[in-house]
Amino acid sequence: MTHLSVGPASVVAAKATSSAWHVHDTRLILVAVVGIALIVVLIAALDLHPFLALILGSAFVGIASGIDVQDVIKNFETGVGATLMEVGLLIALGAMLGKLLAESGGADRVVDTLVRRAGPRMLPWAMGLVALIVGLPMFFEIGLVLLLPVIVLVTKKSELPLMRIAIPALAGLSVLHGLIPPHPGPLVAISQIHADLGITLALGVVVAIPTAIICGPLFSILAAKWVPVGPPAQAGGVVTEREGTGVAADDVTRPPSFAVTLATILFPVVLMLLKALADVVWDDSMPTARKIADFIGEPLVALTLAVLLASVTFGYAVGFSGKAISKRLGDSLGPIAAILLIVGAGGGFKQTLVGAGVGDSIGKAAHNSGVPLLVVGWLLAVAIRLATGSATVATTTAAGIVGPLAGSLGSAHLALLALAVGCGSLFLSHVNDAGFWLVNQSFGLTVGQTFKTWSVMETLVSTVGFGFVSILWAVT
Fold first, then answer.
1. CB 130 within 8 A of CB 123
2. 116 vs 111, 163, 218, CA distance in Å?
3. pTM to 2 decimals?
4. pLDDT-based confidence at 397, cuts 50/70/90?
5. Non-local CB neighbours of 272 within 8 Å, separated by 6+ positions
6. What is the chain's mean pLDDT, rounded?
7. Alpha carbons 335 and 444: distance in angstroms, whole number
């Protein structure tokens, strides 16, 4: 779930609505399909490393689509750079935070409290609730990085299958990412369709809660049967089991309390939520306060401050020396190198597709199709999501196309159209989505297992969410 934009949605919409379908558009769609299939075959059948497979797939798509070779390279490098600029630093900071959380005993404290109070049967529901709270103000990738050590350790302590714990958390994060402001996709859709923010937020919550329940705790029962795996020994650079013991480091003299641990985990969440609230509530009469809130609420700043706080609460306060804290922070970065490369290459492949014009071709195919506007918005977002791998690109492009056609709708229907586009943008995450590889590498899954769990869950979120949107459309 990367957030790279391809330019103003109005420009994309203009291209889609003013240009006729050409043979080249058909060629682009076929090339995109073959490129995606090539990556899957290289990884699943030939056991090629995903990083190399994504590079080869990008080269094929770029060259076969007729783009100049230099532009093929430039598009890929741009996608890698933009993805790592946006996600890579956050993954590194999250790994640092998670390392201190695990080795201080804080993660064990959270896990013990959850397991003791929730019980095995309620743990999937508890994880879904935690994900909804943590994911409200932040991007999917940040929420996953923050929750990753908790997911793995809860799985270890409860002895439940990994998917019973992971899927509810992933579903909660994904639903919020696609439907609820202040996430970038919903905000773009609201702007392009001229929907009311408050109405969209209210209806989005109505859609998000049952969708997260169905696609999270309930679907996790099936997912755990399809992929009956346990937690990996390492996840996203966070050591979740220290020399087989699963306990805090030996030099911890006073493990953090549950309250301190929870406060430290939620600290970056609160900062980002403050920024979101400041952008919505505070006007220009409080410029200084708003600037401060905007600065400290930026994900990079918030997570940096969180790591500094954790160095105290999970470091000095538990008995670590400065040298021990520094060593642990350094140790957290080694295991995430492969994840960063794969996530970056996924962003490069996505930008290769975008640069080839696949999104424009899909927009042309849907324009003037005669299908109801609500369905058009959803299908457009689905198609662009499948082709480009970006939920935000899908939302931006689809909203830009249907926005000019929605002028006669009432405020509630405008909000629901924006939500339909958001639902479509979550459909079937696969090999061209950096989020696919983040989940794949974080939980130590094979490509097939990732498709059976994460990809199916994303498809369910998209279709179930759209189902609830359609019901509300019919009754409003």
1. no
2. 8, 20, 22
3. 0.65
4. low
5. 137, 138, 297, 298, 299, 302
6. 80
7. 12
Instruction: Report pLDDT digits (tens) over 184-237.
Output: 678 778 877 888 877 888 888 899 999 999 999 999 999 999 999 888 765 544
What whole-number distance in Å separates Cα of residue 418 and Cα of residue 2?
19
- Size (the chain), residues: 476
**What is the domain partition of the chain in residue ranges?**
9-475
In which residue are the tokens 């003037």 written?
368
Instruction: Render 208-274 in DSSP notation, one character per residue.
Output: HHHHHHIIIIIHHHHHHHHS-----SEETTEE-SSTT--S--TT-SSPPPHHHHHHHHHHHHHHHHH
In whole angstroms, give the CA distance from residue 101 to residue 238: 9
Phi, psi of 62, rounded to the nearest 5 degrees: -65, -45
Whole-angstrom distance, CA of residue 325 vs CA of residue 332: 11
Euclidean distance between CA atoms 470 and 302, whole angstroms: 37
Helix (H, G, I), strand (E, B) or coil at 431: coil
Please report, as a single letter, which amino acid is at residue 93: L
Please count the other Cβ atoms lying within 10 Å of the Cβ belonging to residue 463. 18
* C-alpha separations of 153 from 11, 77, 235, 336 in Å: 47, 36, 10, 18
Whose tokens are 């794969």? That residue is: 342
Find residue 238's DSSP bridge partners: 235
Task: Please answer whether residues 128 and 343 qualify as being in contact, where contact means their C-beta atoms are separated by less than 8 angstroms.
Answer: no
The rounded distance, in Å, linking the Cα atoms of 220 and 126 is 13
Collapsing DSSP to helix, strand or coil, 267 comes out as helix
Residues 92 and 110: their CA atoms lie apart, in Å, by 22
